[in-house]
Fold these 4 entries.
Entry 1:
Amino acid sequence: MHPDDLHFAWGGPVGTGRLRTCPEDFRVEEQLAFEPGEGGEHAWLLVRKRGMNTDDVAWALARHAGVRRGAVSFSGMKDRHAETVQWFSVQLPGREDPDWSAPADAQWAVVRAVRHGRKLRPGTHRRNRFAIRVRELNADPDSLEARLRAVRAGGFPNYFGPQRFGHKGENLRKARRQLVDGERDAGRARGIHLSAARAWLFNRILDCRVADGTWCSPRPGDALMLAGTHSVFEFRGDEPDIAERIQQLDLDVTGPLWGIGRQPVSDEMAARERTWLSEEAALAQALEAIGMAARRRSLRAAAADLAWSRSGDTLDLAFSLPSGAFATSLVRELLATDTGVPSGGPRGQ
């Protein structure tokens, strides 16, 4: 299944445009849920970068500080072909901060540095703030306005974007070769490959639920998640105010990030989710066999603060998304977009 084959929630794109003509057209900034500080052996660095992926910057910071790469951590992966601001931490036990000024030719710069008592862990940031410019816009103004309002009010399918699967799906292919085909020369399935496999299975289930209209309409036995948290409970079907809370973007239907462990869904719903993955049973079973822990992910992402302005053939979008949601999955509900990204594509978001 190609990402372009995934079902649309709002009827398909209402026009066309061009993304990432230059890095400044795709800006992302991580937002933490707390204020780091109060000292400690970890230097937390807010870094602005462009033309580098997150791992490139981690290596650059390690060399700059004279530490091993394992001493550098980050919360989320960000695109190479974008201008991004994200947090890193560098463990410096018993050491003062080095001069964090980047070399003159560097594609990164430290915006802020503060000491904290713990290392930065994946998924620590709460949200990402986006500012996206679409160029060469060709869309009926009224249709585009109506679609923007619909997405702002009702959210969009929380598909993992193509960035998660690597250039031409290479991350998923490596996971499949190692986990399912048992190819020794495929190497060890790294975290990024396992993540791609689980994202693929999630997208398959979400696609089925968008197709049948239940991606934000729960069935009895579904697992619902409280927005902004990872708190999940099984929906019995008789709880009051559920429909109203879903309409208000307070609750979301969830789908599985595949693995082992009891899921907060009914046996009937668990069986249905397996049926939706019948064509990928081998991959699902392989993830279980290596002991991946099952988790839940919202089927819907919300951008309630979505704002926009149009000038000629240019559309500017500004919005925030929860950590793990993809801006490209929002944009695809609006427009069919070409990209100015060179061959190789963006790594992640």
Entry 2:
Amino acid sequence: MRTISTQYGELIPQHTADDLRKREIMPVEYHASGGIKSVPLEEQTVIATSAGDIPAELVSFHENGSLNRIFPLNGKLSGYWSQDDEAGLSVPITLTTPMGVIRVRILSAGFYDDQSLRSLTLWPGETVSVPTPAGPVVARIGVSFTRDGRVRSLEPAKPVAVPTPAGEMTAYDPDAVGVNGDANSLAFNDEGKVCRLSTTLSGLIAVHPDGRTHRHVPQYRESLCSEAEREVVPMRVEFDGDEVRIAIRPDRPATILKGKGYVFFAEPFLPQLPDMFTGLRCSV
């Protein structure tokens, strides 16, 4: 039986398929340099990582051979195998992370090329309490870390008030989708200050250097649930030194306010919607 040698031991690539979870044999992939890039495994195999032992059905690697991402499960969803079926195989894992020891179900864990933990992508419905520079925040979907172990970003599980250069704003993205936990809507810079957030509950007033005032608020769209209903679109705000970027729609360019002399004020925005805190809307 063919095996692949890695610094994490001998791995047996997938070489059989079944009628339910693994309906096709996934290939082993290689970097252009010839090193292993990803390996689907024949059986779930425990991999020793810097965060602890993690069972794996799919692993990917950096070019230097260190672990890039590990997936405890790798079933293929279809009419024969649902997310609920896959969820029945998911079990909590004890992990040692920059935010302490946690026990949680994960979709994947990502690592830097020095083997330090880069991110966790949580199983749908799972949450963790994350100590951030803005205080403890309950996160869903994902949380990411810097190489030296500081919280870089997370996806708030519910609306949370955080300090920003414009004052207190309420961070929450009801449209967030958990592809991976590397980049999330609430992010912090190297100084630990909020540098990016998505919000449906805050507006931003920009006072231009010439005295003009412009109000930026979340917009609405027609709901796919019903033509008679509207839903609020999360507004993304990024603070980067003297530059502020405001995106009110994902399909439109952001408004960029650059240069000294601008003054910003946050204000509450209260959409009159019955489900403004819904985690996943039918339009997503």
Entry 3:
Amino acid sequence: MWAEKRRVATSGGEVAVVDIGQGPAVVLLHGFPLSSFQWRSFIPQLAPKFRVIAPDLLGAGDSDKPQDPAELRIRPQSTVMRELLDALDIDRYAVVGAGAGGGVAQRLTVDDPRVEALVLMNCPAFDGWLSGDARRVAARPRSLWSETLSIAMLSTTFDIGMRHRERLNADALAEYLRPYSGPEGSDAFFRWITSNDGTGLEDMHQALPAVECPTLILWGEEQDFYPSDTPDLLNEAIMSSTLGLLPGCGHFVTEDAADTLVPMIFEYLRAKYLGQTHGHSDPSGAVLVQLERRPEWVDTAEFDLDEEDTLGEESE
């Protein structure tokens, strides 16, 4: 096991969760077909300042894997996450969501007044869901499900979804594959795909404009799992949002650019969630460029972020 996890009972089943650190809570929600292992680079950096809560969503990782794909949709997952946070006595939190976890994060932000900051990365929104290829796989009869196919699809997903595939080593890939190995794991994998049917975010066109908490949207410029206009639509809908594009990154930005994302998200949460400034007395000497919302009159400019922009010298 890459990290110690506790198990918490919810109405949907037991959730395995990494719970470490002290301070205001930050909830990390992984994407599909991943697990809380997605946050292995984030947790050590966030834990000194925050209480980091990184669950395996139902059907993934070491959490229970319900037989009904409907229980893995956005709304049921959101309900289970709220129950988990109740059980952990969390009274306020920031939520960071990637992929499918970003859909759950949107649902939490709209439905749970405890959310005080939001970070979204390459996630579904509105009616923009997984590609037609994934939907065709979901439509296959259960008799065609197999462990060989699920493992092959999982491995290929990283080949397609990363632009720096060499950064995911064999041990890390094995940990991602582990929960979906064997007949039961393989069936759980296909149930996850089946659950990605667009249910759970239908009301977001009306709900997201009411979101007032600070929101950071980070998007891999070369991701092609979701429609290319999704980040702009999210940025337009959430008036408190900032949009950053990550050049040279695919769908799995946490694998492609962890070294860039970890300090960026840490600083954003420190400034916007904790309300703490980054002073010159900081021993690291780094001064990060703060992203701001793109003015309405700018039609073509985007915020392209790389390590020099994010971790360079002070900029006015």
Entry 4:
Amino acid sequence: MHFLLSGLSIIVIDLLLASDNALVIAMAVRSLPRRERRIGSAGGAAVAVILRIALTYFAARLLTIEYVQIAGGLFILWIALKVLVDASDAPDAVPAPKRFYQAIWYIVVADLTMSTDNILAIAGASKGHLGLIVFGLALSIPFVVFSSNLLADLMNRYPATIYLGAAILGKVGGEMILTDPFIVRTLHPADIWRYIIEGVLAVGVVIAGKLICAARHRRAGPDRLPVR
């Protein structure tokens, strides 16, 4: 019974904490063909989960290392901006293999930098039971792949939603940076300032992406239109 309750807790944790990861994967694979999108999202999530299992025992330590969350937050901001800029390219502007492996790289690194809370929660719920840890982290693969493919389809059907996704990632990146031990220790940011800075970063990513897209469109001519 204890094992089953712990397993149920892990399922709930996966559902609650995996949405950000699904959004990153959706934005990373949205420009791929549908078949490659599914392979890329599943492959990237699987590699990330394998690495997560190895990192679970060190998850608590990760949160105490200064600059780790700053680096992760900056990487998330970069992904959000890069996806917006790439959205202005014509579908065949980047070779398909390069897009595929680039998407895998984005997924693995972003998933690891964003998953500390998920790792810690699962480690706590499993009480150190390796079987439950593997079960909980592996369970996130089908959920994240399914939801990320739905989000990618939505972004392809309604391109303007890419900006919403980029804004959310901007907020997530800001939250990671502001909760880094170094920032907390040196600046002690109040909650109101955290909300303001996260909002500024969310809007800033979108504005910067639109400006870069517009500049690239002016240089490239009418054949490469930015998303709207």
